[in-house]
Write a structure and sequence with these properties.
Length: 733
């Protein structure tokens, strides 16, 4: 089916490109990007870069990182909960790097890295955005660890000293299976401060309706969430050579409950396992982000010096209700509650200094150094409060059937210092042939701290600090690109590059001698061929690649089955192709598609110490569909003398994929299709729009998870049901 969709969509778009081009000149707009840390035209960059402009994001109603999944080829984003995402690219995903692992795809907000946990990438609100650059393939030279499979760069709009401007918008939205009404309010204010400075403040406040009911509690719409993002930026340009940008971003996120479901729109574990308890309470959580950055640019004439200093703080708390699993852990006669409280505290300071040539295009170069100091801590565990406790294997030292309270709480801290030097040079070999050579040398020192806050009878632990764990790692990643510029409208490139994802610590090594203290970095070698073709009304970019992925970070257990840890074992391979086609027959009509084919598989069997299969040869990498993509169209037409009508329609699709590395049938996500539509009337100052997401109300899953190993209890995460809304906008003159 999806192959037929692929062939049909491409054929239709190519025919439209040929048949609808008129004599009217309607050039496709040139987009300037900074993917290679210098300003370049998108079509001149020898990388697979997808760009989503702020205007495109607004037309599609995108306000969260998760929504990028349906807008670009080769990128997969799964939202566990609002504010918590995992990201994969080109067949490379987080298979088991651990609580403190970095993500396989890096995320930057302007110059600041913000991906701290591999499975919990924060959700920056996409408002007042200039563009988003999605770099696919390893970016080990210019972006380093955490960009093994790619990098997402969110580039916000900068303050403008040329004049005052403002904007305001608000929307209301209803969700199927919900009695709540969601809303958000967005505002921006740009104020010149003298002749050479400006202040820009942008804010968005959201109250998103929930739709998950919990019949066991008699509650409805329990998974609503509230989010506030405020960003203030100051730009000062004392002279033509010096520019100083200072910014601060604050986010507050409050979740009423989790989004796990047993069937669409319902959390009722007792339906899957008759006799177990439903949720005793909701599972609320909250988080605060604070990101500050100061970037200084000084133009020396032949080169520009760039210094970027960032400080990222994140505090998050949660309390998951595990009461439904009581009878899975203990005997059926046990009654009471189990809580799983947790907290995450992150403080990351990063500093990059680079010198970028202002070349004559015959020889361009970039050199720089990077430093990062990271302190990431998690606290959590279990709190048991039983009214009657009937142990499985004897009384364990307390009265049979008596009330019982037990706490098993602890804190883990991962401290690291990273240092890297990097250089990249691009030079002309002939009139049509160019070469790019890059290299990055990276090193890291880790220290892990672990302390049991309380003693637990259930787990047999005693309070106190455990021995400190230490380790280090280093990596060198090269990048080679050959670019052939056939003409102003046709470019071809061949790229060989490496990327890596940093290793980490095994905290269980402090109490289990069989566990190694650290695990090493994963590494990726990529071979890619690409072409970029640009004509008056058509833009076509196509890429084919192969990724060889080694030293996978996988989860293992000790031979006694008591302690889990991470280990480097096995390898995988991903081959694929991506196509991006944009057709603009005239000023009023634009159509496009972005389609990716990915074949990603484990290359060898890996077993744990108990003989269990961790990964099997031929298994698919989880969360990676074989075929994915989107089709979209935008049409503009006059309405009266002063207004313009707009229609924007998009369809995103994914073939089936698995949620877990073992490819178990019960965790297979079926094929996915989402239809979105936005229609409106606007002029330069006012606008009113009607929008709909998931118009066909598909019940597509993005992840299926076995909550307790060995039990049949499954949780599902479904896409948001059909959402219909209205939006109003007003801009200053």
């Amino acid at each position: 089916m999806f192959r037929a969709v692929f062939r049909y969509s491409v054929s239709v778009l190519v025919l439209l490109a040929i048949s609808t081009v008129s004599a009217q000149e309607a050039l496709i707009e040139e987009i300037i990007v900074t993917a290679q840390k210098r300003e370049q035209s998108l079509q001149d960059v020898p990388l697979a870069v997808a760009v989503l402009t702020g205007d495109y994001l607004e037309k599609n109603g995108a306000t969260s990182i998760e929504q990028l999944r349906d807008m670009a080829a080769g990128i997969e984003i799964v939202n566990f909960e609002p504010g918590s995402n995992t990201i994969a690219a080109r067949g490379i995903a987080n298979l088991g790097g651990g609580e403190f692992a970095t993500a396989p795809v890096g995320i930057y907000l302007d110059e600041a890295p913000i991906s701290a946990f591999g499975s919990s990438v924060p959700d920056v609100a996409l408002f007042d955005i200039e563009r988003i650059e999605i770099l696919r393939g390893p970016q080990g030279t210019l972006y380093g660890e955490g960009s093994m499979a790619g990098t997402i760069r969110v580039v916000s709009k900068v303050p403008d000293a040329d004049g005052f401007s403002s904007s305001f918008s608000a929307n209301l939205a209803s969700v199927d299976n919900s009695d709540d009404t969601g809303w958000n309010i967005r505002g921006m204010l740009n104020v010149p401060v003298g002749e050479n400075a400006a202040l820009r403040i942008a804010a968005i406040v959201q109250d998103n309706a929930g739709w998950v009911d919990v019949p066991g509690l008699g509650l409805e719409d329990t998974n609503g969430h509230q989010q506030t993002d405020v960003r203030a930026a100051l730009r000062v340009e004392p002279s033509d050579k010096l520019a100083i940008d200072a910014s601060i971003l604050f986010q507050d996120l409050e979740l009423d409950g989790f989004s796990q479901q047993t069937v669409p729109g319902t959390w009722a574990p007792e339906v899957q396992i008759p006799g177990i308890d439903s949720s005793a309470r909701l599972s609320p959580s909250s988080s605060d982000h604070l990101l500050t950055n100061v970037t200084v640019n000084y133009d020396f004439g032949r080169a520009t010096l760039v210094s970027s200093s960032s400080l990222f703080n994140r505090d998050a708390t949660s309390n998951e209700d595990l009461t439904p699993q009581t009878k899975l852990f203990f005997s059926p006669g046990t009654t009471g509650t189990i809580d799983n409280p947790g907290a995450r505290d992150i403080e990351i300071f990063s500093q990059e200094v680079r010198l970028v040539s202002n070349g004559d295009e015959k020889f361009d170069w970039t050199v720089g150094v990077y430093y990062k100091d990271s302190d990431r801590r998690t606290t959590g565990g279990f709190v048991f409060d039983f009214q009657s406790f009937i142990p499985e294997l004897g009384p364990l030292g307390f009265p049979f059937g008596a009330a019982f309270v037990d706490e098993a709480l602890g804190e883990q801290g991962a401290l690291s210092e990273e240092f890297a030097v990097f250089a990249e040079a691009d030079f002309e070999l002939s009139e049509k042939l160019r070469a790019t050579l890059g290299l990055r040398s990276y090193s890291v020192d880790w220290k892990g701290e672990f302390e049991e806050s309380t003693g637990s009878i259930v787990f047999g632990t005693t309070p106190g600090a455990q021995p400190t764990i230490e380790g280090d790692d280093s990596k060198v990643t090269p990048n080679l690109i050959l670019t052939y510029e056939h003409s102003d409208s046709a470019m071809f490139f061949l790229r060989v590059a490496e990327g890596f994802r940093a290793g980490g610590l095994n905290f269980s090594a402090a109490i289990a001698s069989a566990v190694p203290a650290t695990y090493d970095a994963e590494s990726l070698r990529s071979f890619e061929f690409g072409t970029k073709l640009t004509f008056t009304h058509v833009q076509l970019n196509a890429y084919v690649y192969q990724n060889d992925w080694d030293d996978l970070q996988l989860f293992d257990v000790t031979s006694d089955g008591l302690f889990g840890f991470r280990v480097n074992a096995g390898k995988a391979k991903a081959t694929g192709a991506e196509l991006e086609l944009l057709v603009k027959p005239n000023d009023s009509f634009t159509i496009g598609t972005a389609i990716a084919y990915t074949d990603s598989q484990i290359d060898e069997d890996v077993f744990d110490a108990l003989g269990g299969v961790i990964a099997s040869n031929g298994d698919e990498i989880p969360l990676i569909p074989e075929l994915s993509g989107n089709l979209w169209a935008d049409y503009r037409f006059p309405v009266g003398q002063n207004y313009e009508g707009s229609v924007n329609a998009g369809y995103a699709f994914r073939s089936s994929n698995f949620s877990t590395p073992d490819n178990s049938a019960e965790t297979e996500n079926d094929s996915y299709g989402q239809l979105n539509l936005r229609v409106g009337v606007e002029n330069e100052r006012y606008g009113v729009y009607l929008f709909g997401h998931n118009l066909t109300n598909e019940e597509d899953t993005t992840q299926i998870q076995n909550i307790v190993g060995g039990s049949p209890l499954l949780s599902y995460r479904y896409v948001r049901p059909r959402t219909i809304g209205v939006e109003f906008r007003i801009n200053s003159n």
